[in-house]
Amino acid sequence: MLARTRAIAKKEFKQLWRDKRMLFVLIFFPTFLLAMFGYAVNFDVRNIQLAIYDSDKSDVSRDFISNLSNSTYFEFVEYLNNDDDVRRALNDKDAQVVMVIPEDFSEKLFRGEETAKIQFLVDGVDGNTANIISNYVNAATLAYNSKLQKDFFAQMGITREPPVLLEPLFWFNPNLETTKFLIPGLIVMILIVTAVVAVSISLVREKERGTIEQINVSSLSTAELLIGKSLPYILLALVDALFILVLGYILFDVTIEGSILLFFAATLVFILAATSQGIFLSVVADSQQVAFTVAILTTLLPSLMLSGFIFPIESMPGIIQVVTNITPAKFFVNILRAIMLRGVGIEAIWTQLVYMSIFILLFLGFASVIHKKKLSAA
Amino acid sequence: MFSIEVNDLTKKFGNFTAVDNISFKVKKGEIFGFLGANGAGKSTTIRMLCGLLDPTSGDALVGGYSVKKQPELVKHNIGYMSQRFSLYDDLSVGENIDFFGGVYGLESSKLAERKKWVLDIANLKGKENILTGSLPGGIKQRLALGTAVVHQPEIVFLDEPTSGVDPISRRNFWDLINWLSEQGTTVLVTTHYLEEAEFCNNIILINAGKLIAEGTPKDLKTNYLTNAILEVECDNVVDALEILEQQSFVDETSIFGNKIHLIVNDNYNTTDQINKSLAEKNISVKTIDKIIPTLEDVFIHLLEKDK
User: Fold this and answer.
1) How far apart are CA A173 and CA A342, in angstroms?
2) Which domains are delineated in chain A?
3) A217 CB within 8 Å of a chain B CB
4) Inter-chain touch B82–A214, beta carbons under 8 Å
């Protein structure tokens, strides 16, 4: 049993080693994806282009402006002089935000009978960014208000600190960096795509070239064949995982808070689930092209859309939330975020491990049923 | 002493009967030819005999094991080589032998000995590091046969092993098959080439899943075709064929290159009958010879009859 499995694995290693193109893809693809997603997919909104139309032109209005444009979130682009300028700045995308300070701003502020108003015109095409911008501006205004009030009380000789101060503290990802949050999902996506594609193609290739016939007439058992054939790719996927971790650390400072051993143990379970999916596909598909296309479609899309990698599952409609269970990627994203960001142990993730194991059984079960059906019909 | 005993073997795919109640026996150490047109059921039968496909009914004993009940034991005792010479083109010659030896569970000392043997019969001594994909077809075919019997099986199945190989390589390959058979290996071979069938000890012919003839090549030529066969050489072969088909003394016609083979019946007396019927259409006859039927004549005759 062991000798025969080794013979298969050895042969597969040699073939993979000789197939430099495939090897290159399997190793380069993860690096490429990591760099691309790591740098490109970023939900942090910074350097918001700010244009200002200040009709008041007073000390106070300048104070308010400098307060805002000094923050790292905003980048001052230009002063505008009339309404047409304002329209042009937004239309031509010269600015994302235009702040309009009316003539009576300082006057109203000093009299204190009426609230002084400032108009903020935000480019609302990208709703998400517009929302974030509006939040920043609100927060900045609130801070400015409380500063003014403090100054006011101080002039009257009263030390009056703001009554309530909210101090949010973000655990696990203190600076709310999206890359920290994305990297675990990225590892999941890269691993599932490489594992499923590599395993299904290597099996279908034997079918396409007819070499599987020769193996079938030998007394090699299905288990020996599958283990032998998957072993090199399982090892390669683990190497890929290590590779991404090191690269994630170098490029994005991502570290594992929890146990590295647990990380690799969970990764192994996930790779087994992905391998099973690859085996299942290889039973269904009869050509490498079909296998490749189906593998990409059934791994890339679900792991991108349904795993919670980018879009939070909690905010999906109920029925879609149920659909997210079709990919083992969902469970592995949970596991990796738990291990890498929260640093929790096995007690917090074992249910997710069980779910992933169910995928292994399901895929292998379906694969063997369909395989038997195809054999008796061939 | 039989290596293979097939009893009422039948395989149905839905309503389609691919193999219909076939029975035959193969003696140990003989070369057994398995002939039939494409889609006649040859491959299906071989797949059942290799334990790859479960028969719908009937059974076969291969090397003493039932293909229905003990397919795994059957697989242990056979070698198989298909027309696609299932070798890995991206592995070297030596690696291919190592791989199949490993798959058959050979120990390393045994494997080293068999590897030498395979390299020897494939004329690849000292070339074991060459990539298999770069070998010429004839050599690749010998290597494929060598790896198919690397575990020294008692029986070897060859499914159209010589298709797409040049005539000289084919002849060399048959020498190898003969040699294997002399060493006591039973060889069951399917082929399209009827001249190859002449090398077999016994032959069966199947058509539409049914066995329609069996025996030695000599038996087939004498027992199944009792009428005389004439070879006619003349002008305008196609027109001549049409005319001769209409004659009452002719049973069957077929074209062999620029000649026509006629199977004649009791109404035929002299060559004049042929000359006369063709002369009416201004076709001149060069020669008319009575010939010993080839296997091809016999098979065309049998397949015509089976229609």
Assistant:
1) 9
2) 2-42+177-377 (no CATH), 48-155 (3.40.1710.10)
3) yes
4) yes
Cα separation, B143 vs A71, in Å, equals 75
* Tokens representing residue A123 in the block: 């480019």
- Given CB atoms, is B104 within the 8 Å cutoff of chain A? yes
Number of A to B CB contacts under 8 A, please give it.
76
- Which residues does chain B have within 8 Å of residue A6's beta carbon, measured at their own beta carbons? 102
Q: Is A302 left (phi over 0), alpha (psi -120 to 50) or beta?
A: alpha
pTM: 0.78
Handedness of CA A216, A217, A222, A223 (dihedral sign): negative
- Are B49 and B25 in contact by the 8 Å Cβ rule? The answer is no
Matching residue, tokens 């009316």? A102
Closest to B181 in 3D by CA, of B203, B151, B219, B149: B149
- How close does chain B come to A29, measured CA to CA in Å? 23
With CB atoms and an 8 Å threshold, state whether A218 touches B86.
no
Nearest to B75 among A7, A15, A218 (CB): A218
Ramachandran category for residue B233: left, alpha or beta (phi over 0 → left; psi -120 to 50 → alpha): beta
What are the chain B neighbours of A378 within 8 Å (beta carbons)? 47, 53
User: pLDDT (tens digit, 0 to 9) for every residue of chain B, 307 residues total?
Assistant: 899 999 999 999 888 999 999 999 999 999 999 998 888 888 899 989 998 888 999 999 999 999 999 988 999 899 999 877 689 999 999 999 999 999 988 888 999 999 999 999 988 988 989 999 999 888 888 999 999 999 999 999 998 888 778 888 888 899 999 999 999 999 999 987 888 888 999 999 998 889 988 999 888 888 877 777 888 888 888 888 888 888 888 888 888 888 888 888 888 877 778 888 888 878 888 888 888 888 888 888 888 777 7
B90 touching A (Cβ < 8 Å): yes
Nearest to A217 among B13, B75, B99 (CB): B75
Asked if the C-beta of B87 comes within 8 angstroms of chain A's C-beta atoms, the answer is yes
Instruction: State the complex-level ipTM.
Output: 0.77
Half-sphere exposure of A210 (CA within 13 A, CB side): 11
Structure-token pair, residue A207: 């079918």
